[in-house]
Amino acid sequence: MNAERIFTAIADPVRREVLETLAKDSPKTATQLAAVFPITRQGVLKHLHALQEAGLVTVRQSGREKRYFLTPEPLRVLENWAKSVGTMWDERLPRLKEMLENE
């Protein structure tokens, strides 16, 4: 899993909303997703492609339709990153507070 692709994919607010929509009710077709967002079906497909490239969405063919599913495993990369950054700040903030109080 490429962390940079994951971060790039979720940097866009529409993509985050697509992920949230799929997390609540999956699978969805691009047409169903386009009905939820104020963008065209083609616009939704571009976002889905970026999410798929990042490994956040999988697609399955069902007859003539493609159904999109949330793939939660890559989100663990974000969770691990957030934990490491949080731990760093948990360690540094008390020292910063102490330093500022001593000035």
CATH topology of one domain: Arc Repressor Mutant, subunit A
How many strands in all? 2
Structural class: mainly alpha
Question: At the first level of CATH, what is the class of one domain?
Answer: Mainly Alpha
Helical amount: 55-70%
CATH architecture of one domain, please? Orthogonal Bundle
| Major sheet | 2 strands, antiparallel
Q: What would CATH call the homologous superfamily of one domain?
A: Winged helix-like DNA-binding domain superfamily/Winged helix DNA-binding domain
Span from first to last CA? 45 Å
Protein name: Transcriptional regulator
GO molecular function: DNA binding; DNA-binding transcription factor activity
Pfam families: HTH_20 (PF12840)
InterPro entries: ArsR-like_HTH (IPR011991), HTH_ArsR_DNA-bd_dom (IPR001845), WH-like_DNA-bd_sf (IPR036388), WH_DNA-bd_sf (IPR036390)
Which structural traits does this protein have?
12% strand, WH-like_DNA-bd_sf, HTH_ArsR_DNA-bd_dom, Transcriptional regulator, 103 residues, Arc Repressor Mutant, subunit A, 5 helices, 66% helix, mainly alpha, two-stranded antiparallel ribbon
Task: Give a short synopsis of this structure.
By secondary structure, the chain is mostly helical.
Summarize the SSE layout with pairings.
Layout (H helix, E strand, L loop, with lengths): L2 H8 L2 H12 L5 H7 L4 H13 L3 E6 L2 E6 L4 H28 L1
Antiparallel strand pairs: 1-2
Helix pairs in contact: 1-4, 2-4, 3-4
